[in-house]
Every structure is written in structure tokens, then in C-alpha cells.
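Subject: sequence -> C-alpha cells, single chain

Hey, anyone have a minute? Need the predicted structure for the following. Not urgent.
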Amino acid sequence: MHVKTKMIAVGGVCLALAMVLIFVGSTIEVGSFAPICLAAFTIGIVTLGGGLGIGGAYLAASILLGVLIIPNKLHIITFGLLEGYLFLRECIYDMIIKKRNMGSKAYLLMKLAAYVLMVTIPAAIFPALVYEGEMTLALRIGIPVAALIFFVVLDTAYDRFMQYLCNTRIIKDLKD
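Reply:
Had a minute. Here:
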């Protein structure tokens, strides 16, 4: 197995950037979710440049390093779930779109299933993770809906980020 030195260097820089962003998110409590989401986007760079094998190794390394150095473990759990979803999404995209030519309808169906399984159901079952006060009916309905809207925005931002990366020379230079 031949691993290019450029890819190792980019993986290390992405890992350092992800840890800095998570640390910033855990230090500054106001708006702490945005740096964690940006840190999860780094798996797209590594997976696109090195393939699914290197992306999986990066996923394991980033979660392990985060557990070791980040003091707020809840942010690491959040980061791991987001990064795991984005990696799973890359795997599904690779299997459905590229290899089997099933088209975008099957891909959208898989994304919808992921939204329901990873966001709506956990937010409906465990709303106390998001809101600590008294749960009213409006909050029990509003929390899963808000989580779903946020996840769709995150997913759309990741799509735009990956489209931008595919159109730049950064990834083309990594693959050479």
C-alpha cells in the first residue's frame, strides 16, 4: 500500500485544525456548535484526497485524539457523530452514485433516512440533551423540527464545501 506524503501532511494539518476548532468550541460556550461543525468538515478534505480507507483512518484518529486532549467530552461526542455521519455519507455516495449509477433519487432517499435516524428520532427521545427546562408539547415537537432544519442546513453547507473543493486544484494536486 502506497501512501503519498502529501496526503499524510494534509491529514495532519486537517487533524490539527479540527482539534483547534473543537478546543475553541469547548472554550467559548456561546456559539460552540459552529466550530465543531467546521471541524467535522475536515473529513471531507481527507476522504476526497485520499479515498475511503484514509478517511476511515482519519475518523478514528481524530476521535481518539479528541478524547485524549479535549477537556469537554460532550463536544467530542458531538464531533464524532457529525464526522461519522459525513464519512458515512461519503461512503454511501461512493457506493450509490459512483459505483452503481443509481442516481440522485436513491441518494436523497438515503439522506432522508439518515436525517430521521440520526436527528429527528434522538431529538424526540432525548430532548433533555438540548433543553433542561420543563418540557411542554410545543418543545417536544419544536426540538426535533429545529434539529432537522439545522441538520439540513449543515448538510447543504457540506455539499457546497465539497463542490468547491472538487472545483479547485487543491484536491487535484493531492491525487497526483
